[in-house]
Amino acid sequence: MHLILKDWLIPLPGLLSQAALETLSIIAYRQPITRIEVEEIRGVKSERAIHTLVNKDLIEEVGRAEAIGRPILYGTTKAFLGYFGLASLKDLPVMEDVQPSDQLEEETQLLFKKLEEQQLTFDDVARDKVNVNSDEMKLE
Question: What's the mean pLDDT when you consider all of the chain?
């Protein structure tokens, strides 16, 4: 499938994988961003998804970070805007439900702490089993 725009033949990107869509969303909202930063957000490698998005002209190299190794910074392209029918990045939907990562991390740690407090050890299970057996013996 192709779209003819101002006498240019531009191939439309096919369907994107879930990984590519997640990666594209992160880049769109957080640009300019490095591959490592994308991977930290997603929690998995994103090299292949980024490669796919570059090949489909949805993202591009927009510079280099001032960090060790000068990693590539990625951003969206004009083709991205056109593909999603946006005049500019300001037209992206507002992300009201997204929490800052620090707050999310804090809430995650609290959840794990609560879960740890409720976990039973083997000794607890054995002790409870003994108490149940002794209660059953009293009932008989």
Answer: 76
C-alpha dihedral, 31 to 37 to 43 to 49, nearest 10°: 60
Average of per-residue pLDDT across 120-131: 56
Indicate yes or no: pTM above 0.85: no
Concatenated DSSP letters for the chain?
-EEEETTEEEEPP-PPPHHHHHHHHHHHHH-SEEHHHHHHHHSS--HHHHHHHHHTTSEEEEEE-SSTT-PEEEEE-HHHHHHTT-SSGGGSPP--SPPPHHHHHHHHHHHHHHHHHHPPPHHHHHHHHHHHHHHHHHH-
113 vs 98, more confident? 113
